[in-house]
């Protein structure tokens, strides 16, 4: 790696403390980013020493395996500049930039356009001839189709699309990346990965967390914008896309966009058949009593923001015609349970009755543990020819392999210029195009309530085809 500067705009914020700095610290400890200079930039008129103390405290709290000796090496990479998001003030960064430099917008989303413009006006979008410049943008990219398009225009005034790395941290998760490897590196999968063999797909991201300290952001966003529009749509398109002709970031992103373009549009008339929203009321999780969303600090007593969203998507192409894809995510649910679960169609009935062949499921589990489960029917040991369900499990973690957090993966990719796991604008745009009619419809009316600690609103059932059941959140997917 050539000497590179990473400027973090918004360096006094939560993301920097909790996720970016711990990731950078670990990459440094592993010897992967020795030539990286990290410059924090924020409004606070801090000295470099003050910034160091701030980050030291953050790492003590959030970096697993924090060690003072390692910190003493890492701190030498750090620097700080205080200023507003204005070109004349940003210009103070000039002498700190290597020919290769990237700017990370760890800022409130409303400031992405302002910051990109100010960096451009300061002349930072164009590097010297022997270097490159990149802009890493956090999520969410816009709040609907129109605002995302406006933001794109603002960014493109100074930055080329190839320079912009839009983060979706789910693309840095092992399970997400494994979807691509597992699907395309195994001979037996591709021939059955289609409507002829697959009955339904369920993508669930359930959290026990509530709104925590993010009321100001979350109450404006809601579950559809916070989780479905970005993270779950990515899992969806990676599950459904066609095999790549070439292992290349642009080809991959073309394929994901193809999926989104093939989704049957949801309209004002069909929203209720395709989308359900919920909001948690007071409830119990184990012995803990939980307040309802409207009683959380910072949330309006009459807020209609959804804390749960479920979608039924249908893809009208040769591969998937007739297969419903169910996506859902919510806060304050019964467990931290997340997976992509693919159910195969039933086998024909020419088996002895006692075999009871159940449906096969292929499950890519994200939480509570990352692992793959294949649910099959095998013979029950004994004299009779009877069947029993068996789970073939492949755990993810292995003592022989280092694991990297999503932010470690993506920061490394950003430094190396690998765009594979970042979003191209048209992916974001298509996801907004599909979901904006739902957001529009949800501007009025109220969400369906569910008790905190439960499976979510019972109305989510209405999205399912006859014979399909939601997998149980409380029992990590078991029936
Ligand atoms: N926190 C998280 O867990 C995650 C956050 N994200 C995304 O990361 C981004 C940052 O989030 P987060 O760190 O939580 O937000 P915070 O509000 O904690 O921090 C944002 C940063 O922006 C600065 N800032 C705020 N307003 C201005 C302004 N008007 N001018 C200049 N700087 C300003 C803040 O400075 P100051 O401290 O002075 O206000 C702070 O440094 C968001 O886009 C969020 O969606 C994504 C995934 C997870
Ligand atoms: O982006 C977000 O993701 C988290 C869930 O992701 P995880 O990797 O932390 O499990 C979610 O809690 C948050 O609301 C959302 O903004």
UniProtKB/TrEMBL annotation:
NADP(+) binds at residues 84-85, 139. Residues 180-465 form the Glucose-6-phosphate dehydrogenase C-terminal domain. Pathway: Carbohydrate degradation; pentose phosphate pathway; D-ribulose 5-phosphate from D-glucose 6-phosphate (oxidative stage): step 1/3. It comes from the Bacteria. InterPro entries: G6P_DH, G6P_DH_AS, G6P_DH_C, G6P_DH_NAD-bd, NAD(P)-bd_dom_sf. Keywords: Carbohydrate metabolism, Glucose metabolism, NADP, Oxidoreductase. Its EC number is 1.1.1.49. It is an enzyme of class 1 (oxidoreductase). The active site is at 231 (proton acceptor). The keyword NADP applies. The keyword Oxidoreductase applies. Residues 7-178 form the Glucose-6-phosphate dehydrogenase NAD-binding domain. It catalyses: D-glucose 6-phosphate + NADP(+) = 6-phospho-D-glucono-1,5-lactone + NADPH + H(+). PROSITE patterns: G6P_DEHYDROGENASE (PS00069). Substrate binds at residues 169, 173, 207, 226, 331. Catalyzes the oxidation of glucose 6-phosphate to 6-phosphogluconolactone. NCBIfam families: zwf. Belongs to the glucose-6-phosphate dehydrogenase family. HAMAP family: G6PD (MF_00966). This is Glucose-6-phosphate 1-dehydrogenase. It comes from Dyella lipolytica. The lineage of its organism: Bacteria, Pseudomonadati, Pseudomonadota, Gammaproteobacteria, Lysobacterales.
